[in-house]
Design brief:
The complex is a heterodimer of chains A (293) and B (202).
Chain A (H helix, E strand, L loop, with lengths): L1 H10 L3 E4 L4 E7 L5 E16 L3 E8 L5 E7 L2 E7 L10 E8 L3 E16 L3 E5 L4 E6 L3 E5 L4 E14 L4 E14 L4 E16 L4 E17 L4 E5 L5 E7 L5 E2 L8 E2 L5 E6 L4 E7 L4 E5 L2
Parallel strand pairs in A: 3-6, 3-7, 3-8, 8-9, 8-10, 9-11, 10-12, 11-12, 12-13, 13-14, 14-15, 15-16, 15-21, 16-22, 17-21, 18-22
Antiparallel strand pairs in A: 1-5, 2-4, 4-7, 5-6, 17-20, 19-20
Chain B lengths: L3 H4 L3 H6 L4 H13 L1 H18 L8 H16 L9 H20 L8 H23 L6 H27 L4 H28 L1
Helix pairs in contact in B: 3-4, 4-5, 4-6, 5-6, 6-7, 7-9, 8-9
The chains are: A mainly beta (293), B mainly alpha (202).
Chain lengths: 293, 202
Amino acid sequence: MTRLLALLLLLLGGTTELAGQDAVRTGRPASQDAAIRLWLPRGSVRITTWTRDSVDVKGRVDAGAGRLLLGGSPAALKVVVEPPEGRTADGIADLDVRIPGGARLWVTSAAAEVEVTAGGGSVEVTTVSGRVRVAGTAASVAVETLDGNVELACISPLARVRTASGVLVVRGVLQELDARSVSGPLFIGMEGAVRQVHLETVSSEIAFKGDLVPDGRLQAETHGGDIELRLPPGLAATWHLVSYGGRPEDQLLPASALRAGATKGEWTARTGDGRATIDVRTFKGRVVLKIRG
Amino acid sequence: MTPCTDASPLLDEYLDGTLAAGPRAEVEAHLAACAACRAELEAIGRISTAARALPAALQPPDAVWAGIASRLPAAAAPRRPTANFPWLRLAAALALFLGGYAIARLGPGAPATDAFAARRAEYTAASIELTRTLRQDAGALAPETRLVVERNLAIIDQAIGEAEAALQSDPGNGALEQMVLARYEQRLALLRHATLSGRRES
């Protein structure tokens, strides 16, 4: 596979290989909207944007981590830390990468810490473990990690996060967010009004603080974890809550607004013109509604 | 003789009778000489039989599952490469069990809605396939990754069991059906991610 990857890089227009390296420094021309794919097995990488039409890579690559390859065309580049031939990488790479502001970025790693400060392009990060942090402004953000903690502190119309056991923290301005975990808690503090949010975890908790646009939609679901929503007191919405863990603890809605629904564990309410939709489900967790501070 | 690592992934198909003549002959030759794979084949057969035997009016799944689970580790334990991954055996067993469960729910008079039952059957079939793939690639996962996958699969499976049990008590409850389907979907997503993770780590 690694041989195939190296061959592809060569075919894409030549490759800079920095052999036997510790300190590395290399670069290549890149268009403002270049597609940039970065792969490193473990270590850390910080990616920032700049106004130049090029990609710049500097840092350190342990001999045990393999070798750094940078190749491709200005429209499509690959930055790869290729593991040593025939064995698993046992060293780390620590890289600082600068890319054009509008570049579309894909980062793939086994266990590296990834930090991206986006400059307008899309960001997609896929890891097994290792912390992932995305800041800046992005056209879209997608993060998928098995065990890594994820922090989004960015401005973007669209963000999607999947983690099994990592902790997700969101502090930013997002119009749409889809975040799901198995056992990792979801702590969401949104600024501005959100159009659509879907939050889902099996065993952990969800804490959401934010606001919705008038016809916005918030869905939150757990199996065993608690769900706490902090929303503006005057939010006009249709509320549908399912909680087999007991009556929701409501400190938000007007008195007696919340009524038992048609089936056991179901509660409904309508506030204002009811345009926004709040849909909450938990099998055995608690639902808590609070006023956003 | 065909090694265990080649024969084992074919046992399910061998049992189903869907294996082509050539591979079938190789599996039979291997089984004739390998007691460990014969035992595994018997274990798979017992799981399939138990799943198929589930009545249309479902019994609490925990009870059936407990019976299956108690037999599996002993059947899968000491011998082949995948024996180091008993959780994958359990995941495969649960997937088979859920497959039987879903098929049973599709029978005449089943309380579940057709759409729900059909979707659950789809998830289950995909789960079986992914579990099989993961078993074949199990060595590619780092031990710590394996533990994460194992722990989270167990969490999802427990949630599925609890939600399914509640649905039995309250058949046709739309909210519960959606919860069950959401858990199946998460199970699939985790298996898919684990499979890709193994390829990234190898």
